[in-house]
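Give me the fold.
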Amino acid sequence: MRTTVIQMAPGASAPENIEQARALVTAAISADKPDLVMLPEMWSCLGGTRAMKFAAAETLPAPDSAGEAGPLYQFLSGIAREHGVIIHGGSIGERHGDRLFNTSLLFDAKGRERARYRKIHLFDVTTPGGEGYRESDTYEPGSDIVTAPLSAGLTAGLAICYDIRFPALFHALRARGANVLLVPAAFTVETGLAHWETLLRARAIETQCWMVACGTTGTHTDENGQKRRTYGHSMIIDPWGTIVAQVSDGPGWSTARLERRVTDSIRERMPVMAHHRLSIHTP
């Protein structure tokens, strides 16, 4: 399965971000002919005030497509259908009363929704450099562990950004049949330089899964008027922990082929899941 990660530099305007995403996705499909295309976390509205986040968010239709779809949902479904590719929609804001969910949507090549995942672990931290983040001020955590078939022999496990620091979630995804991990993100430059590649490779190695990680890049402005920078460096990693594709700085994309036989070979030669002797806590 040819897989492309789309690295964006989004701001707080959803219409402008849709056009940026459309241009990058269309160019990547024309150039690389992927089967699966993935967008980053909160590509639809990164930064801005709480009111701006709510304005950009949508009430999603039921998974059976009952209900009216907003422009973000329509864009993701439509571009999948138009190009005949699977689209992982990174994540967008989903309205939930006076709160939001940070939600990933997966569409098949006919534009039908196949999976919906709400970010479980929220980013409430102060970095060593003193930058503070309180995702829980606006967002509600999800609770469901989500996997979905991609094609014959490949099953995706869904996670978002800060989830990558919680190995139990990824062990649970592996236990439910995942051999591909799809992780959109908006890692800060500080945490990205220190931990991004290390965490991604660790999760790929310990679960023996392909890791497809798609990040935002560039500078945006938060609700207090402060400039925030995200790290980019979107990458695809094989189940042995080798980086097989990577985007550097700035908007762009990179593509690699995911192969089931690679996963099967590694798992047969090193059956780590059969060797577990300690119980693993899962959400």
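The first helix runs from residue 14 to 32.
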